[in-house]
Amino acid sequence: MVTHVPAEAQGDERGALLSFIEEQRGGIRRALLGLTDEQASSKPSASELSLAGVLKHCAEVEQSWIARARQEPPAISRDQSNWHETFQLVGDETVASQLAHWEQVAAETEKFIRSVPSLDDTFPLPEAPWFPKGSVSMRWVCLHLIRETARHAGHADIIRQSLDGKTAFELVALEQGS
Fold first, then answer.
1. What is the CATH number of domain 7-175?
2. Are the C-beta atoms of 177 and 34 separated by less than 8 Å?
3. Which of 49, 80, 110, 161 is the most exposed place for a label (fewest CB within 10 A)?
4. Rg for the chain (alpha carbons), in Å?
């Protein structure tokens, strides 16, 4: 059972980068299969991470990077006072609403990356200790989103296995109805 991007699905460089981002999103989405919001929000290890929190964080991070690349303010402003909310459902948020939100964010990411004249185009980053200094390219943004999402997909695998023992291969089979 394949859990990687097939070579024929990649197309050009943009297509390849977008396919790898989507592959990692899929790992996080699959980790949520069959869970209630309560299960997805639970923290079954010493970590403060939950599957719902990983989902929300990845959607917010992706949305904020595309906003920066467009040189627009992020839709949600995070600082030390509300950073914890990026890793938990708040108010009327649900796993379903966050999955739907991430689907919209993913569509916007694809539309934007496909529309930029060149992946070499750059944009300046705001000065902050957690950002690289200066400017980054659209290619860098795609690679960063792959890295960020893959990192959290690994967290999602561990969290899901801690909840019910299901592995990535079992979740792929579940997704495929096998």
1. 1.20.120.450
2. no
3. 80
4. 17
Torsion angle (degrees, nearest 10) of CA 128, 134, 138, 142: -40
Q: Indicate whether 5 pLDDT > 80.
A: no
Domain ranges for the chain: 7-175
The CA distance from 51 to 112, in Å, is: 27
* Amino acid (1-letter code) at residue 178: S
Q: What is the 3-state secondary structure (H, E, C) of the chain?
A: CCCCCCHHHCCCHHHHHHHHHHHHHHHHHHHCCCCCHHHHHCCCCCCCCCHHHHHHHHHHHHHHHHHHHCCCCCCCCCCCCCHHHHHCCCCCCCHHHHHHHHHHHHHHHHHHHHHCCCCCCEEECCCCCCCCCCEEEHHHHHHHHHHHHHHHHHHHHHHHHHHHCCCHHHHHHHHCCC
pLDDT exceeds 80 at position 114? yes
